[in-house]
């Protein structure tokens, strides 16, 4: 990936709805080479798709929670079981494997505290093999972006 490809990605992260003509102008290319580069980025998997950055509260999910989970055992079977189950839970928007005292951090959205209790009791606890769950509720967001920093 070269600098021009990175410019294309950043421009699309800032406005995924821009036309190829606008994208080409933004990255100082003519439309045909720009479209060719875009298709190559999609084919290679560098661009995985396009989505909408929707407001979770407006959608009806105003509560964002970071849930840190430590497993009791770290054998391949238990880790794979946990990860497979997490993949099927809609409230989990992100799941990251961590170093340190916690094994996973989940970003979860729910409609209210009762929904969060239901999430823990009926989605997380039945997975089994969990040693601890630590929860932090988000009460404000200072910065949220999907735009990568420049690599100049």
From TrEMBL:
Source organism superkingdom: Bacteria
Gene Ontology BP, a term: regulation of DNA-templated transcription
Cellular component per GO, a single term: cytosol
Keyword Transcription: yes
Keyword Iron-sulfur part of the UniProt annotation: no
GO molecular function, one term: sequence-specific DNA binding
Record domain HTH asnC-type: where: 1-62
Keywords for this protein: DNA-binding, Transcription, Transcription regulation
SUPFAM superfamilies to which the protein is assigned, alphabetical: Dimeric alpha+beta barrel, Winged helix' DNA-binding domain
Entries under PANTHER family matching the protein: LEUCINE-RESPONSIVE REGULATORY PROTEIN, TRANSCRIPTIONAL REGULATOR AZLB
Protein name (Swiss-Prot/TrEMBL): Transcriptional regulator, AsnC family
